[in-house]
Amino acid sequence: MLKPSSRPTRAAPAIPLVPSAKAPAAGGDGAHTIRVLQSNSLPTLVQRELERMILAGELPAGTKLNEATIAELLGVSRGPVREAFRALEESGLVRLEKNRGVFVRQIDIAEADEIYELRALLDEFVGRRVAQSARPDDVRDLQAVIERMDKAAAKHDLDAYHQANLAFHDRLVELAGNTKLLVMYRRLVNELSLYRRTTIAQAGALPLSSHQHHDIVEKIAAGKAAAAGRALYDHALGSRERMHEATGLAAPAARVAGRKSR
Q1: Residue-wise over 76-109: b if at least 16 C-beta within 10 A, else e?
Q2: What is the mean pLDDT of the chain?
Q3: Which residue, of 13, 32, 96, 205, is most buried by count of CB atoms within 10 Å of its CB?
Q4: How far is residue 45's CA from residue 80's CA, in Å, rounded to a whole number?
């Protein structure tokens, strides 16, 4: 557990330079720092850095997060850390337990199953919606992300592939144009990330995943709404099946919206 007596030994990051901030432009790091602080609250910057550490596995599932230790690590007061904890709870990454503290959430396979089933439904809706409304520029955006995935797959770079995969699906949901859906979807993705990347680490998973993403974009570009929705639905449940293969457990039959397993 993360306690004052067992702090991470890495140097404390400079909060204004967290990865989610924009890259520095001309004018030097000082000017960049001022711009980032002007456009983001300190609790938001703390939240983003903690989110990065959790999703990168630097703060594993089950870790107890000590408010004072995190504040010292990031070079801030305890107030922004406290606010960041509340935001992280809303996003599904931590749980706050009364009289016990704050912990990085743990997701078991039963909960991951439920998330995949819900995500399959949402993905199908997204595929249909985007295929009906996508412009050529939108399709090119998606194709650019797939190129990143292809390059990562060729190098078997799981981290780069995982990040590009997240960006691809996030962009699809953005293109669906439903803000409530985007918030819900990002929470589900965060929760699945806590289960780690067991599905894409399997032999042969990257080429299969890349092929499926190309197929999804082709159907969207052709305006085939039903086919794009089905492709995304099957893609989500395929990921669930690979999760079960990785754990050695049999996957349950699909229960989403009364569908039968395909």
Answers
A1: beeebbebbbebbeebbbbeeeeeeebbbbebee
A2: 81
A3: 205
A4: 9
Q: Are the beta carbons of 176 and 125 closer than 8 angstroms?
A: yes
Whole-angstrom distance, CA of residue 133 vs CA of residue 221: 10
Q: Which tens digits make up the pLDDT trace of 160-186?
A: 888 899 999 999 999 999 999 999 999
Note the pLDDT of residue 196: 59
Minimal CA–CA distance to 251: which of 124, 119, 117? 117
Per-residue b/e over 219-249, b at no fewer than 16 CB within 10 Å? bbbeebbebbbbbbbbbbbbbbebbbebeee
Residues in the chain: 262
**Could you give all domains of the chain from N- to C-terminal order, each with its CATH number?**
4-104 (1.10.10.10), 109-258 (1.20.120.530)
CA distance 70 to 83: 12
**Structure tokens belonging to residue 219:** 């159907």
